[in-house]
Amino acid sequence: MIPLQGAVFRPPSEADSLILQVTLGCSYNACTFCGMYQEKPFRVRQLDDLRAEIQLAAQQMPWVQKVFLADGDALVAPAKLLASVCDLLQEAFSQLRRISIYASPQALQIRTVEEMRDLRERGLSLYYLGVESGDDETLTLLNKGVSADEMIRVGQRPAQAGVKLSAMILLNSGGPELSQQHAIGSARVINAIQPRFVSTLVLTPVENTPLWADAQCGKWIEMHPVALAAELRTFLAALDLKATIFRSNHASNWLALAGTLPKNQAELVATLDAVLEHPEHARFRPRWARGL
Ligand SMILES: C[S@@+](CC[C@H](N)C(=O)[O-])C[C@H]1O[C@@H](n2cnc3c(N)ncnc32)[C@H](O)[C@@H]1O
Ligand code: SF4
Q: Which atom of ligand 1 is closest in space to residue 105's alpha carbon?
């Protein structure tokens, strides 16, 4: 196994991928809810170190088909470094099918479409983006660093480069008060971006974050699972997508749903309507199963 530095995070769909830390930490590191990289100063790693790790991994796991580039916003690394890493991975793993990476709004602001296209040709074909919300008030609470319209502008750029996007939406991020506008605004942004994948996560306070402090003093309110189902219902019903795979399978969700949109949209909305009508029959995940 190649050595990993500090706590490492990856999307659920990268469970069987080789993880390569092209960067450490997050260059932005200011979202009010995110404690993932607080104790890890941001830096871009040296190509020589990455080369050595790729060679080691190729000796130990020559069968690797998927590689995920970490940490939190690895797409901010210089395009030249990312291109070299992709080339080294292609040389090292003959069965390589896909390289993916965590983007961020800030990373998408600095990467040109030409750079993204060049990296796509070298195999970097999927970005994960924390859209979190499409509502400006909610985005301000989260301190995401961009408005909804800017999120649309940067979120549309991967497709222009032939890169697939997986967008994450954070339920409960506006609390009960902003719930409906958060759901409607998020659907507007997702409709404008038309990502290949969209998933929901449920905002969960973690220690040493501004959100944790807000939760302690009652400024941020944890919504009941039924209220979250209502938020998700509004979001799903307002989506107007051409071909997107939807999942709410991240551990933080109370309800695990999945489907292709628009094909399964009516079914998913009906499932949530049934939950809202008869919450006593709903198959909510127990709190312990959510890792909380
Ligand atoms: C490691 S971050 C990478 C995303 C990327 N840096 C960006 O901002 O686009 C992955 C995602 O985890 C989720 N996440 C982070 N902290 C969370 C929390 N406290 N509760 C729930 N989800 C959280 C957010 O959706 C975030 O976008
Ligand atoms: S959500 Fe993404 S951009 Fe925000 S602090 Fe976490 S890793 Fe960084």
A: 9
Residue 252 Cβ < 6 Å to ligand 1: yes
The answer, yes or no, to whether any atom of ligand 2 lies below 6 A from the CB of 68, is: no
Q: Kindly report the average pLDDT of the chain as a whole number.
A: 94
Which amino acid does the sequence have at 222?
E
pTM for this entry: 0.96
- Domains of the chain, by residue range, sit at 12-290
Distance 54 CA to ligand 1 centre (A): 26
pLDDT single digits (tens) 9-24: 999 899 999 999 999 9
Q: What pLDDT, on a 0 to 100 scale, did the predictor assign at position 292?
A: 45
What are the pLDDT digits (tens) for 211-242? 999 999 999 999 999 999 999 999 999 999 99
Q: 133, 170 in Cβ contact below 8 A?
A: yes
287 has pLDDT over 80: no
Fold type of domain 12-290: TIM Barrel (3.20.20)
If one residue of 34, 133, 141, 150 were mutated to test the ligand 2 pocket, choosing by the most ligand atoms within 8 A of its CB, it would be 34
Dihedral of the CA atoms 148, 154, 160, 161 (nearest 10)?
A: -150
Q: What is the mean pLDDT of residues 169-175?
A: 95
Ligand 1 near 203 CB (within 6 A): yes
Selection from 175, 169, 254 nearest residue 215 by Cα: 175
CB-ligand 1 contact for 231 (6 Å cutoff): no
Backbone angles phi, psi at 87, to 5 degrees: -65, -45
Mean pLDDT of 259-284: 91
